[in-house]
Amino acid sequence: MTQGPAPRPLSDEALSNLLGKQQFGTLATVKRSGHPHLTTMLYSWDSEARIVRFSTTVDRIKVGHLRRDPRASLHVQGGDVWSFAVAEGEAEVSEITTVPGDAVGRELLGMIPQAAKPEDEDAFLEQLVAERRVVIRLKVDRLYGTALDING
Question: How far apart are the C-alpha atoms of 66 and 48, rounded to whole Å?
Fold first, then answer.
């Protein structure tokens, strides 16, 4: 049997860069049964604070999971099928944005890439309130992942 190259662990810097390049990942929370609950999420990575932020509505099941057990992980695929990063830590759920332009609403607005910022910011902030949006903040205490150098 031919053996190919072994997976190469990624440095903390490479892992952070991978998180910064991607926008979607799989968030894992813990169900009451102890099994993982997986959901694909759009996220925002703050490398300096080591916080991953997610926008969701207060009625989503992942919010209940995190309020009961804050342990969570985010799996992000690299640019090829051989590389990935995982960010682990404890998550907190913000209060619901209740007034257009409040701190939570501004945090949600700040998560949007500049190129995708809404033209009507006031209407966007009102929509966040109507949707009962919250921010999930995953405080990352461990990053890990690998790459596999395969040619062809």
Answer: 23
What does the pLDDT profile of the chain (152 residues) look like in tens digits?
567 777 899 999 999 999 999 999 999 999 999 999 999 999 999 999 999 999 999 999 999 999 999 999 999 999 888 899 999 999 999 999 999 999 999 999 999 988 899 999 999 999 999 999 999 999 999 999 999 877 64
- Chain centroid, CA 121 distance in Å: 23
| DSSP H helical ranges for 33-135 | 61-68, 103-110, 121-130
Domains of the chain: 8-95+133-145 (2.30.110.10)
